[in-house]
Design brief:
2 copies of one chain form a homodimer.
Chain A (H helix, E strand, L loop, with lengths): L3 H12 L6 E5 L5 E4 L2 E2 L6 H7 L7 E5 L4 E6 L4 H7 L5 H7 L4 E4 L3 H10 L4 E3 L5 H11 L10 H12 L3 H24 L6 H14 L3 E2 L4 E3 L19 E6 L1 E2 L8 E6 L6 H19 L7 H18 L7 H6 L27 H4 L28 E4 L2 E3 L2 H8 L10 H5 L6 E3 L2 E5 L4 E3 L8 H9 L3
Helix pairs in contact in A: 8-9, 10-11
GO molecular function, one term (chains A, B): manganese ion binding
Keywords (chains A, B): Aminopeptidase, Hydrolase, Manganese, Membrane, Metal-binding, Protease, Transmembrane, Transmembrane helix
Protein name (chains A, B): Xaa-Pro aminopeptidase
Chain lengths: ~475, ~475
């Protein structure tokens, strides 16, 4: 947890941006797995963490702008809680740690909100993503879940504030990235032919846990890297495969790292793997070089796509003019997703607030239709203080080839005859995390090995 | 997954018990952690698994008794899903594996239910525990979540059927218990002074994962065993402490094991630990000896409580007549919870259906007021085919001592002067899993070491 004044200052800065009404921040609950009291590991809502810092289930933070009050609503422990979960800090002691002097029983929240509604005051809230909070808002506001209207002014104010990371946040993200790099080195040490993908997942999870970290998201550790969010982990590694590892740690106070590496199960890449790996690496370095305030991330994305096309043309998988190929979205045969996203308290930072507010601007709205661009989470001009990922890749998806080839889609740009020879190639992604600085950018965390030579010589020590 | 006919037979048996209407079984969704697409590991609802077997998110199983139809509602994969999550089996192929021939898009469910409501037909459903399913039912039935009335006839029929385990279920539970015993042996191998509790949790989790199992519940691994559901894992083990490990595996198709052992961090128990450990072991063995069809588990609970009191009297912590002490609930100074619970697809089997239906009968309802008995999840007469845990313990809770001593509560039975000397003792629990057989009972899984001599000689090999 940061200092008390951190949270006070953040709330003060927010209050200065909203003219009136009540700001309602719903904390998360402990979510049931298969019955109410068998629950998933608790994770506090990130915006609640940002303004109220307490990783305690079932709290609600309220800022009453009209009456100049801050209140944390919650539940005091009973004697039964003592028996089942041990002595608990009181709600008021907890609140004091984040500079909130007023607390109230959660059971009195409905009355508080009801009174404000009766006074025709605005209740600002953020888009709920957990069903429990949809239900709670629905009850508090006496609306059906589909009627709930999150506050766009609150969303914009929160997104703007959380987008610019404080120095202490950057330091915490660097800690998350540092643990993440060690998780990746561990996979490069352990992976060997005959091993199951899940063994690497389990090792990474235990390692993160032993560093007092959680996993920021379900790791993707797969020999089928062409499946972007592959959660199948039952394949057996064999020589000739590459392992794509997309894994990041989350620190105890909730900040994420998000790194991807792709390495051969054998001691060395084969020549095709080497060729395509180098293209992805070139795209990463080329994109990185463009990172600086004022540059739109959409242009960085398209620049990376062009580098990918140039490389793919050089190896005969694409043809024609690279610029034109990218303008026609033909690179999405190989690169179907976005180049990166903001990162912070969430691995996709503030994705719950809506990408149109977080990653785009009113003047440059998100393209929600075009295959490829509709998956680009960040498109707006970069600002100093942004933390983001850059993650180009080449993904050869047999079903997508069949689907598009059947209609000659992109046949001016894609060399289908050559591509057929690669249909079982798999996928490669490389991902690093950066801070945008006034001068340009800074790599976050230690520099995790990524050149072909470095990866091969590291692997050679363990294979 | 079991054979197709398993699921067909289970559904047929259920249909024979309900006279008419529609039976609605809501599968679970992937629950968001901190935004919609960052989700916890998927766990299917247990009743859905029991009747429809498919561990796939966002399915609904429907049995229309009036029209003699079985339908699985779900969503077919799109080309986008292919890119993000790889090729998926079709809904109809999935349904065929559990003997259901009709499938429909989830978007058509509301219409189906709406038509049935218009026909004044009964929609039977079970109590929803995940908020997403409360919302879904609320929408389907056009009722507020608090208006929803689960079907008592369906609850009773499901509880009766799921309570009596099939041979193949018992075999699967034995597999879960077998992995659980290995998890426990691992903790006894690894634990040493200076280690953090969480390191044992992480090791156990990775081990279970490498056996293709999940954890059936968040493990309790603590030097403060007196806190019944302790989830703090930041303490450092030191000589003189005992480690209480309550951990169980869940097999790939969802069956749980649930074992507890308590062992010394040093190579041997000290004399007080030894004394109280033996009392708990005596209670476990005494309770076990009573397990047979027709015996109420409440009487087994009270019998175990009496053995605990006898032992505590022998060491000077209690006084007066043990029988009378138990009748007055004075044992709850040391044993605040219930002796055990049913186990199966849930570690607390069918807890979501309601303990009054699952663990009790209409004639012998649950005591929901009395401290101690209100935490006894199973009270009804045992039947052959039940699988359950037996888990006596002694928990010395300083705050509870202070609370009760202040009002002289149980001062006829509790020797507070002596108890004060034990206030930092901690807690001991021992837990095994049993099948009720026509003749009596059978221990499930391998016999995990539990005598003082066996535990000490095992620990001596690793300390």
């Amino acid at each position: 947890m940061f200092t008390t004044s951190t949270y006070q200052n953040r709330r003060q800065a927010l209050q200065n941006k909203i003219s009136g009404g009540i700001l309602l921040f719903l904390g998360n609950i402990e979510n049931p797995i298969n019955f109410e009291h068998n629950t998933y590991p608790f994770r506090q809502d990130s915006t609640f963490l940002y303004y109220f810092g307490l990783a305690v289930p079932a709290l609600v933070g309220l800022i009453d702008l009209d009456e100049n009050k801050e209140i944390i609503f919650g539940r005091e422990a009973t004697i039964d809680d003592l028996v089942w979960t041990g002595p608990q800090e009181s709600l008021s002691d907890r609140a004091a740690r984040v500079g909130v002097t007023e607390t109230a029983p959660i059971s009195s929240l409905a009355e508080y909100i009801g009174r404000a509604i009766a006074q025709n005051r605005t209740i600002h809230f953020l888009p709920p993503y957990q069903s429990a909070n949809k239900l709670l808002l629905s009850e508090l506001l006496n609306q059906t879940p589909s009627q709930l209207q999150p506050s766009v002014s609150l969303i914009r104010a929160v997104a703007q504030q959380r987008s610019i990371k404080e120095a202490q946040e950057v330091a915490e993200i660097e800690r998350a990235v540092a643990v993440s790099t060690k998780m990746h080195l561990l996979t490069m040490q352990l992976a060997k032919a005959g091993m199951k993908e899940s063994e690497l997942v389990n090792a990474v999870q235990a390692f993160a846990g032993n560093q007092d970290c959680a996993l920021a998201y379900p790791p993707i550790i797969t020999v089928h890297g062409q499946i972007l969010h592959n959660q199948v982990r039952s394949n057996i590694l064999k020589n000739g495969d590459m392992v794509l590892v997309d894994a990041g740690a989350e620190t105890a106070i909730g900040y994420a790292g998000d790194l991807t590496r792709t390495f051969p199960v054998a001691a060395a890449f084969d020549s095709r793997q080497r060729d395509l790996y180098q293209i992805v690496l070139d795209a990463l370095e080329g994109a990185r070089a463009q990172l600086r305030p004022g540059v739109s991330f959409k242009s960085v994305h398209l620049h990376a796509a062009k580098i990918l096309v140039e490389g793919l043309k050089a190896v005969g998988l694409m043809k024609s003019d690279p610029e034109e190929a990218v303008q026609n979205h033909a690179h999405t045969m190989f690169f179907q997703c976005g180049l990166g996203h903001l990162m912070g308290l969430d691995v996709h930072d503030m994705e719950d607030l809506g990408e149109q507010y977080v990653g785009y601007t009113e003047d440059n709205p998100k393209d929600t239709q075009t295959f490829g661009l509709k998956s680009l989470r960040l498109g707006k001009p970069l600002e100093a203080g942004f933390v983001l990922t850059v993650e180009p890749g080449i993904y050869i998806i047999p079903e997508l080839i069949d689907h598009w080839k059947a209609t000659n889609k992109y046949s001016d740009f894609v060399n289908y005859a050559e591509l057929e020879k690669f249909r079982d190639f798999g996928g490669i992604r490389l991902e690093d995390n950066f801070l945008i600085t006034p001068e340009g950018h800074q790599l976050l965390g230690p520099d995790l090995i990524k050149t072909i030579d470095d990866v091969e010589s590291y692997r050679a020590r363990y294979v």
